Amino acid sequence: MNIDFHYYATYCAAFLAGYTHEEALEICYSAQLVDNCSRTFLSRIKGPSAAATTQLQLELMSARTDLIGLQDITRIWASFHFLPRDLKAVRKHCSRRYMNKYRLICGPNGSLLKETVELASGKSLQAAGLAMHILADTWAHRYFAGTPSLAINNTTYHFFEVMPDGSEYQIRFKHSPSAPDEPETHTYVSSIFQYNENSIMNLGHGRAGHLPDYSFVKYKYLPAWADYDEVLKDNPSDYLHAFAQMVYAFRYLRGDTEQFETDTYAFDVIEPFRERIEKILNTRQTDSCDDWRNFGTELSGCGVEAFDLEKYQQEYIEADKDNKNATFLGKFILAALAQKSMVTNRIFKSGNPLAGLSADYSERGFVGIKDFVELIEVLNPIGAIEIKDE
To answer: What 3-state class would DSSP assign to 118?
Structure first.
């Protein structure tokens, strides 16, 4: 998803769920910050690099692609953008190596989503916003995995957009980073094809470019993980469910409901506005910021300020060590560390090595999300893990 949904639509969902204008602004800022909190950003504010929730293109271009580097990439993208739906998924006649990647395929309403939302309960508004970014992305990034994999994430010539009238048009992908996407010609910018299974070009939905991030598109394609059976992705429907599920999740986080259940949506709350929401979602445009912003302004009667990455930086930089955690960015960083640790630990405990070794967050704090080498150095002296040569 793009800033139009993660920032402005999240503001609307938070306000509809009962948060005040000021609270909704803090929440949607945190939701969008997930797409901006890179190691470069954290270095600028002198924050912990382990709290990175994304990687810039330049960071990815220089990223290691050996086992340790791939584990680092997976920890970030699986934790915050491609939350695995089923870590115990089973397929017949598959190698263990392939199965490990197959189990990282993203999708809504998995057990990790429930844990993600529950982890934010009773925590900060920043934690709520971070959780909503992840929840929304389970719908947008459905069928792709947050680990480099040609077998899982590749696209082929058989990739068609299905129009509202039922007509179909072949989608053409091209690699031209400076060129815009062209919905009117069904042409979208994507990553370069690489035969290397573990190339960063095969991370997430890079092979499909920004196409999965647009709410208006409905497409079908032949992914290898589905045995080349045709899979239909209906973004207008998925994005509507994402919005309604965010409202429901927000009401849980506010304490209006006692439990968060998957596959549950606040359609009753959004019903008076459903036609307006569906119109925004179905409009063929690559940027819906103005539409969502106007909707949010009408809901609250207050202007929704634009996202400003520098807004909270100085507060964090100037805070002394004992008070950094109380700042806006400090609270976001704590939420990011907790989320990455939880997801990494669940992947590790499932027997999947793609996110590296992990210690249980509840027992050992944040050590589970440290870089692989650092984790060994931290845990091995106390006998928490046994390192074996293979």
So the answer is: helix
Main-chain dihedrals φ then ψ at residue 96, nearest 5 degrees: -65, -35
The residues that bridge with 174 in the sheet, in sequence order, are: 189
- Of 338, 344, 373, residue with least CA distance to 359: 344
Query: For the segment 23-48, what is each residue's pLDDT rounded down to a tens digit?
Result: 999 999 999 999 999 999 999 999 99
Delimit the domains of the chain by residue range.
3-148+235-357
Q: Are 176 and 278 in contact (CB under 8 A)?
A: no
Distance, in Å, from the CA atom of 83 to the CA atom of 54, rounded to the nearest integer, reads 13
d(C-alpha 15, C-alpha 27), whole Å: 10
Sign, CA dihedral 33-39-45-47, equals positive
How does pLDDT run across 253-298, given as a tens digit for each residue?
A: 999 999 999 999 999 999 999 999 999 999 999 999 999 999 999 9
Contacts of 360 (CB under 8 A, 6+ apart): 345, 368
d(CA 303, CA 86): 40
